[in-house]
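job 3f2a | input accepted
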Amino acid sequence: MHQISANRRMVTLAASLGWFFDAYVITIYALSVPLIATEFKIPSIMLSGTIGSVFLVGYTLGTIGFGVCADIFGRRIMLGVSIVAYAIVTALTSLTTGLYGLAVCRFFTGIGGGGELSIGGPYVTEVWTKERRGTGIGVMFAFYPAGYLFSELMFFILTPLWGWRAVYVFALVPALLILTLRLRLEESPRFVGVRTQLRREVCPRIGLSAALRTPAYRRLLLSGVLIFVSLTYSYYALAFYIAPYVIEHYHLVATRGVILVLALLASSSLIGGLVGGVAGDAFGRRKPAMAVSLLISISTFTCWEGTWSLPVFCLLMMLTGFLLSVLWSLSIVYVNELFPTEIRASGFGWSSGLGRIVSIAAPMVTQALAGAIGVAHAIAVSAFIWIPLLIGYRISHETVGTEIGDRVLPLPLLEAASK
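job 3f2a | predicted structure (419 res):
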């Protein structure tokens, strides 16, 4: 039992630090956009919109690709590959001198980062018990806003001394520490168990494409995709634009005032992630998620459609960040629980990847709308993106307190069960 608990802690910490690093890489770009725009003589809205969407294309491909590979080669090895690829390309971003080089680096950074999403969640899901699985995911997700805060600290320290490029080079430091920890991990016991059973029975692994030949799994994938359409679009419609917006609207200095606003948002998000995990174990996944999605629609619209003083704007952003993190925490564990171990990373990767296809357009749609109606009104439009999530939860079933499956039923049985 002690060995199981120790492995659970190690896996959770390793995956959590990956989310921590993911937040660092995404946030340093959002923070450095005004500085890059000045140096490259490019409008900041283009860097937030066009390059933001290029990053998301890479992230989508990485989320799907790493998820599929994790079901084939294992969670442990692919998690290591993700952090190595991620760190190297992030550091190379410091050498870019123009728009095209920046776009290429952000694209490949997205591919590496996609692995953290599609591997970390399934890995943590598989090492926690059914009674505390939501809490484990909540802890993992809470590291994302913690990475957000860390990136702001490093930006505040490094940028005045060596410029915006320094925060990209510094990415090698936390990445090396995370890789060192991941080299000590044990493979997911559930993944090992499935592999062992397949070898013992001398039968091939059933992949996601084969499972999707039945309506039951197609419905599960549709549910996951709809949930992530809302989650990813709403986040990226907002993430790339907060820094430029508060600089312009509230006349804040990039290296100080903006960091304060983003730090408040990250702090509330950290609490929200933990609350979402614990609440999911106590009250279920579906009903709390659907209720919170309605609340966040109201808070988003209120925040961006009103004319607020900076303190009130910060309070509304903190509420939005809290609710958004609750939803992410609930939904990550929920979608992972929908699929058996044999196709869990693939199912989760395709769910979040296909859902993210819509989010690829989020920065560019916001950019286009901002030109016509202003940034605030453009972001307020994302308040209506929660409808797909409501549908996704509505067409599926509750998973709290149930034991996750390990094997996809053999196809004849699966087809018979779906009739």
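job 3f2a | The chain has one domain: 2-417.
job 3f2a | closed
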